[in-house]
Amino acid sequence: MLLQPVRTKYRKAHKGRIHGTATRAAKINYGSFALKAMAPERIIGKQIEAARVALTRHMKRQGRVWTRIFPNIPVSKKPVEVRMGKGKGAPEYWACRVKPGRILFEIDGVSEAIAKEALYKASAKLPIKTKFIKRFV
Known about the structure:
Aldehyde Oxidoreductase, domain 3
């Protein structure tokens, strides 16, 4: 099942730019290990789901996974071979604007070696440079 909001205030959104570094979700809150974004990028719902599946498969459904991002921005697209003008296209998919420093996924209940490999496999599904981090107690 793809991630998307149940309701939004507006059907279409401006493209926008991703400036600055993350202040929200910049620290590990839930798990012991996490995947941190290193560059600004839009991540779409399908990519989040693909990363989550890769993560849980490698962990063999042990431990716990927290997804710290949610695609709440509608991205519209005009049909192929349509001339310019005549308004904005229909919403095509949902995306999440990710700033550098944002925690994408957190995991717990597995060893560091398994966590590192699982998060590495998840990062391969994302269009963004990421970093493995662990909680310092």
